[in-house]
Design goal:
This protein has 88 residues and is an all-alpha fold. It has two helices and no strands. InterPro entries: bHLH_dom, EMT_regulator, HLH_DNA-bd_sf, USF3_bHLH.
């Protein structure tokens, strides 16, 4: 294997730049997946379609909706399913 001259060797600066670019790409991909997941959750919760929802609003509404579903489920289990109640 031929030896590299000083000019051909990657410098620390180039190496750091490459590492930063790689990290930034990984972080963009991670954020994209998180945003897609939040948007999927937003499609499942009942709300006005006219509202442009922020991520915070989607997560808050999802928490409230899941809490209500759990409460209704617990109530049905306690009552043996005798009371039929609709969701929202």
């Amino acid at each position: 294997m031929p030896e590299m001259t000083e000019n051909e060797m990657p410098t620390k600066k180039q190496h750091r730049k490459k590492n930063r670019e790689t990290h930034n790409a990984v972080e963009r991909h991670r954020k994209k997946k998180i945003n897609a997941g939040i948007n999927r959750i937003g499609e499942l919760i009942p709300c006005s379609p006219a509202l442009k929802q922020s991520k915070n609003m989607i997560l808050d509404q999802a928490f409230k909706y899941i809490t209500e579903l759990k409460r209704q489920n617990d109530e049905l289990l306690l009552n043996g399913g005798n009371n039929e109640q609709g969701f929202y």
